[in-house]
C-alpha cells in the first residue's frame, strides 16, 4: 500500500493556524465538574435568539424536504429595505465568515497582499492564506485607536483588500467616519471590506457602518452578521452590501444553496425584531458601564468599547487569572492569540452573569494583592 504521507496539501495551507473558538459550556462543565458555567467568550447575545426568528424556524420545519431559495429573495428583500439599497447590492452567506472566504476567493491571487489592522478578527488572515496571499498587519495606535495614515502607508501595488473592523474585535475601538472617507479617497484601486459585525451596539456620533459609502459608489463591501445582536449565531447567516459589480464577482464563487432554509426565514424575521434588538442594545450598554465602573474600582486598565465586549488588562498574571476564572465557571477569551498575554476579552452578559463575573474577578484580584 502507498503511504498517505505522500499526499501533499497546498503549500499555502502551512500558514493557516487553526481557529480557536471559545470553549463550549458543556465542555467546561464536564472537565471541571462545575454546575454553573457562564460563557462570556464569543460575543453572543445573552438574551437569547430573537423570538420572532424562533417562531419563523418553527413555521419552516414542515418545508424541509425542499431546497432553500438559492437567491434568498425574501431575506435579501428585508435587508435591502432596511438599508435602502436594491437586492442586487446584497449577498447573503452562511455566516459572515463565509463571506470573508468568498471575497478572498473572488479577489485574491497568489502573491497578493491584504492589509489588516492588528489585533483583529483572525478570519481575514485565514481567507488570505487559503488563496496564497500574504497578510500585512498594521498595529493600532495608543489605546488601540485606528491610525488611518498607517493603514494608507501599508498599501502597495500588491494590495487587493483592506479590512476594517469597526467596532474592532477584540479592542472595541472604531474608525471615525471621516477617516473611512480619507482612506477610501486615498486608495481607489483597493477593495475595502468594512466589517460591522458589532455596528448595532455602536453609539458614537462619528461612527459609520460603511453603508453610506457603499451608496456613494466607493469600492467597499459592508459586511454584517445575524450572529451578534440578532442572536442567531447557531443558524449561521451573514451578508454583504456592496456596489453591484462587486456583488456579481462574489456571487461567482458562491455555492447555490449556501444559506439554509431555516436560516433564511429566521434572519428575515430577526431583522424586523426591533423589540429584541432594542432590549439587547440596552442590556449591553448598562452591562458595559457596570464593567467600566467595577474595573475602575479594581484599578484595572480597559479599553472603552462600542461593542458587546470589553478588553481588559489583568496584568502579568493574566493567564493564571484566565485559568482561575475558568475554574470558577466563567469562560472569557484569553488575549495571548492577539499578542496580549496580560489581557482578556469579556463579552457583556445578562445582568446576573455580569455580576457573577465581577464578583469572582474581584475575589481573585483581592487574593493576588
Ligand atoms: C462574530 C464576527 C463576525 C460574524 O461571524 P459569523 O460568521 O456571521 O457568525 C464577523 N466579524 C467579526 C469581527 C466578528 O466578531
From TrEMBL:
N6-(pyridoxal phosphate)lysine PTM positions: 228
GO biological process: L-histidine biosynthetic process
Alphabetical keyword list: Amino-acid biosynthesis, Aminotransferase, Histidine biosynthesis, Pyridoxal phosphate, Transferase
Cofactors named for this entry: pyridoxal 5'-phosphate
Stored CDD domains: AAT_like
Pathways involved: Amino-acid biosynthesis; L-histidine biosynthesis; L-histidine from 5-phospho-alpha-D-ribose 1-diphosphate: step 7/9
Domain of life: Bacteria
Keyword Cell inner membrane assigned: no
Catalytic reaction(s) noted: L-histidinol phosphate + 2-oxoglutarate = 3-(imidazol-4-yl)-2-oxopropyl phosphate + L-glutamate
GO molecular function: histidinol-phosphate transaminase activity; pyridoxal phosphate binding
Domain Aminotransferase class I/classII large, chain residue ranges per copy: 36-360
Matching InterPro entries: Aminotransferase_I/II_large, HisP_aminotrans, HistidinolP_aminotransfase, PyrdxlP-dep_Trfase, PyrdxlP-dep_Trfase_major, PyrdxlP-dep_Trfase_small
EC number: 2.6.1.9
Family to which this protein belongs: Belongs to the class-II pyridoxal-phosphate-dependent aminotransferase family. Histidinol-phosphate aminotransferase subfamily.
HAMAP family (alphabetical): HisC_aminotrans_2
Subunit composition and interactions: Homodimer.
Name of the featured protein: Histidinol-phosphate aminotransferase
